[in-house]
Design a protein that fits this description.
The complex is a heterodimer of chains A (282) and B (308). With 282 residues, chain A is mostly helical. Chain A has 13 helices and no strands. The chains are: A mainly alpha (282), B mainly alpha (308).
């Protein structure tokens, strides 16, 4: 039997090196974000003179935020993004859960085929149908509306939602549903009973559906580019294009766009990561 | 007897449950996708007149001097973009996941930090890095100087030779969290008994990883690979944000997504062309489909039998 190398320096290195690598990488991950946040609160001179310094009494300035609130319609962009994301999310979860329940619960002809049909959408990106989507939106008069965006995002999010939710629904004990059936509950009632039982999965899917919708640039750019319907991502992109040389305004608008997502992320990061790893631990 | 009767037709409540999802998915995803593919076989004669053109659009895409050089360059650039992700993003993701999977409170903190850029919008990330790399601000240069690499700095985003790889590395920086978290989930799912046995036999952590853990997470390696492939051949936002629709300098960062956008919507002097746009999208569809099929039939199947 070999002895495990247990000399002191070796043990030290084995413990220390991983933490060092993780620390270095965390700095790389965090550093650009911190630079933007920090400098957005400084006067222009300090941004260039001492980019690595925290803002202090002397260099503190909100001039960038002033420009942004004066010139850009950020409240409007935020409202648009919030409406689109929230409604699309709600519809995806409800409609997706219904379909997932049907596929998980009932053995009907064509079930397997339906699963396959819906699975195509997991791998093939919806963007490839953009030419067709734009034509459809024009004929439905949904160009430059939030409704158009919502419908696209629901269609885009459904396949993966249904796939994951039906796996979870299969795990709901059969006795529970059968007992309710004997008591005369309708199938709709049973669906209402199962839904709260898969709540953790709904939460996880919700977070992962939300992020790409909130961050999407492509469809707002193509389907609803008007300033009235622009989302935050598109609004920031256009604003930055106009104000490239105004560093205060650029830094402030980037900060404003980052903050809500960062706050949400910090609140939900535990659940988010737990939900991905849940399948593994089980 | 009753069950056989039930099977032969679909009960109403099943239809009610399925209908909204199937209708929305079909109407807003499947039909437009099929229409786009169909449109690639047509050409617009005048205004709203379409006529069947067979493979004319494809021939144009591969040979016409207005399209072919752009198409082949975008395709090549896209493979470079993908290669950078496979060679840099996924190995770093694996390394970080392996280190994080050792567990502990501090590591939960690192995990949260490292995943952070992934949740931010590509538009924000694009601008953030444009500022960081801007020689005018000099942040990147001072950082490199601090570690003695000052001479190495250059206007990477502005030079045709370095722009594509720079943009790809920024994308890697943002999305490394995805392979990391998938590898991490797979690694912590490995039962302790398996690694314990190797440790008792005196294997080093390095050996345990490559001989025991890595073979067990091969299915995840495949999933990460195909997700990277699909994501990269569908990429657009970052290049559009950092380099505009013309994917400059001198089209050096042009990938399929930006080429599709320009062909469809046009650019400064050139009018948009929906049917040629559809043709480019159809090519992207074929490339992605080929990748998915290769994954399903070559990788996933082999891994399955391997697991048995």
């Amino acid at each position: 039997m070999k002895t495990v190398s247990s000399s002191r320096p070796w043990q030290f290195i084995e413990r220390f090196i991983p933490l060092l690598i993780l620390t270095v990488y965390s700095v790389i991950a965090l550093f650009p974000i911190v630079m933007i946040l920090m400098n957005s609160f400084k006067a222009k001179k300090a941004i260039f003179g001492a980019p690595f310094a925290f803002p202090n009494a002397e260099t503190f300035s909100l001039i960038g935020y002033q420009t942004v609130t004066d010139r850009a319609n950020f409240q409007n962009y935020f409202l648009n993004s919030a409406i689109v994301t929230f409604v699309a999310l709600l519809l995806t979860l409800l409609i997706g859960a219904m379909a997932a329940f049907a596929l998980a619960e009932y053995d009907f002809p064509g079930n397997a085929l339906m699963v396959l049909y819906l699975s195509i959408g997991i791998m093939i990106p919806i963007r490839l149908g953009t030419v067709g989507i734009l034509r459809l939106m024009v004929s439905l008069k949904l160009v430059n509306t939030l409704t158009g965006l919502i419908l696209i995002y629901v269609a885009q999010s459904l396949p993966l939602t249904i796939f994951i939710l039906s796996q979870f629904m299969r795990q709901v004990p059969k006795d529970l549903k059968d007992a309710a059936r004997i008591d005369g509950a309708s199938e709709y009632r049973i669906f209402g009973m199962v839904l709260p039982l898969v709540r953790p999965a709904l939460g996880a899917i919700g977070i992962f559906t939300m992020i790409p919708i909130w961050n999407d640039l492509w469809f707002p750019l193509i389907i609803s580019p008007s300033s009235k319907t622009a989302t935050v991502t598109l609004g920031v992109q256009q604003f930055l294009g106009q104000f490239v040389s105004d560093w205060n305004a650029v830094l402030a608008s980037l900060t404003l766009a980052m903050i809500p997502i960062l706050i949400l992320y910090i609140i939900f990061s535990r659940q988010m990561i737990r939900s991905i790893t849940a399948g593994a631990i089980k | 007897m009753q069950s056989s009767k039930r099977r032969s037709q679909i009960p109403v409540h099943v239809l009610v449950f399925l209908a909204p999802a199937v209708l929305l998915y079909t109407l807003f995803m499947v039909v437009p996708l099929i229409n786009s593919l169909r449109l690639s076989f047509f050409e617009i004669v005048n205004q709203n007149q379409q006529s069947f053109a067979g493979l004319q659009n494809y021939i144009k895409l591969f040979t016409d001097s207005n399209f072919a050089p752009f198409f082949w360059r975008a395709l090549r650039n896209n493979f470079i973009f993908f290669a950078v992700h496979m060679l840099v993003q996924n190995p770093i993701g694996l390394l970080l996941a392996a280190l994080l999977a050792e567990g502990g409170r501090v590591r939960d903190f690192f995990r949260t930090i490292i995943f952070m850029p992934t949740v931010l919008s590509v538009v924000i990330i694009g601008f953030v890095w444009q500022l960081i790399l801007n020689p005018l601000w000099g942040v990147a240069e001072s950082m490199l100087k601090a570690v003695g690499l000052g001479a190495w700095f250059g206007p990477w985003l502005g030079k045709p030779e370095t722009a594509l790889v720079t943009v790809a590395l920024i994308s890697v920086w943002q999305f490394v969290g995805i392979p990391m978290i998938l590898f991490y989930a797979a690694l912590i799912g490995i039962p302790d008994e398996l690694t314990e046995a190797a440790r008792v036999d005196g294997a080093t952590a390095w050996d345990t990883f490559w001989r025991v853990k890595f073979p067990l997470i091969l299915p995840t390696v495949g999933i990460v690979g195909i997700l990277t492939f699909v994501g990269n051949f569908n990429a657009f936002d970052l290049i559009y944000t950092m380099k505009g629709a013309n994917a400059g300098p001198d089209f050096s960062t042009d990938i399929m997504g930006t080429f599709f956008y320009r062909t469809f919507f046009g650019q400064q002097l050139q009018l948009g062309n929906p049917t040629m746009g559809a043709t480019v999208a159809a090519m992207m569809f074929l490339i992605i489909l080929a990748g998915v099929l290769i994954y399903m039939f070559l990788w996933a199947r082999r891994i399955q039998t391997y697991e048995m």
